[in-house]
Amino acid sequence: MMTWFSDWWRGGVPVVEQAGARDAARLAQLHGASFHRGWGEGEFEAMLTERNTLVDRLRLGRKVIGFAVSRMAADEAEILSVAIDTSQRGRGLSRNLLMTHLGRLAGRGVRTIFLEVEENNQPARRLYEWAGFGVVGRRERYYQQSGGEQLNALLMRRDLS
Ligand SMILES: CC(C)(COP(=O)(O)OP(=O)(O)OC[C@H]1O[C@@H](n2cnc3c(N)ncnc32)[C@H](O)[C@@H]1OP(=O)(O)O)[C@@H](O)C(=O)NCCC(=O)NCCS
User: Fold this and answer.
1) CA spacing 20 to 30 A to 17: which of 25, 38, 70, 84?
2) Which residues make beta-bridge pairs with 96?
3) What is the pTM for the complete model shown?
4) Does 90 contact ligand 1 (Cβ within 6 A)?
5) For ligand 1, atom 21: residue with the closest CA
6) How does strand 63-73 pair with strand 53-60?
7) pLDDT tens digits for 43-72?
8) What's the pLDDT tens digit per position in 120-135?
9) Sign of CA dihedral 56, 58, 59, 64
10) Contact present, 156 and 134 (Cβ < 8 Å)
């Protein structure tokens, strides 16, 4: 299929760009649909204005369909959250989002990036491994599920050169 046609079919060309204060409500909605403990609009508003937090959004046409959030301290950063709209998953859209986000962190002087991922979260683990992250630690029973089940967390790291 021709590129322009598939782009049109999917609702436009995916664009990664810095999120702004007006994205808070939509980002909270996306976060709430992806995580057991969702972050509220107020939490996003705060992160979107803090100097040490970097928030990128993934936009398809006029719709914001994903985001990546990191917190920076000196030359290190932690990826706090990455999410894609449930209806847009499985198309590889998170790769462009994450790579652009890493590039922007590098542009802010970040040299080392950490993140925590639930051990059974295969899509996220595949994404981070593809992006060059390696497992550097494991925390047993780190996440508490609503049903009481406790899940392990993997600590991953990537150095930017
Ligand atoms: C993690 C997430 C951002 C990935 O976004 P995405 O655009 O759907 O990712 P992709 O389409 O590139 O798929 C990522 C990989 O997972 C694989 N995958 C997708 N669904 C899967 C499943 N149910 N089981 C195993 N692997 C799966 C894909 O095949 C791909 O691997 P590959 O590159 O080796 O083919 C998305 O699933 C999401 O928003 N999840 C909820 C929030 C979350 O868990 N975030 C990460 C923790 S902060």
Assistant:
1) 38
2) none
3) 0.92
4) yes
5) 123
6) antiparallel
7) 999 999 999 999 999 999 999 999 999 999
8) 999 999 999 999 999 9
9) negative
10) yes
Residue 113 to residue 92: CA distance in whole angstroms: 21
User: What value does the mean pLDDT of the chain take?
Assistant: 93
Distance CA 121, CA 114 (A): 16
**For the CA atoms of the chain, what is the radius of gyration?**
16
- Atom number in ligand 1 closest to CA 94: 7
Q: How many CB atoms lie within 10 A of CB 113?
A: 24
Q: Alpha helices of the chain — where are they, by DSSP H?
A: 3-10, 24-34, 41-49, 93-107, 122-130
90 C-alpha to ligand 1 centroid (Å): 6
3-state secondary structure of 22: helix
CA distance 120 to 113: 21
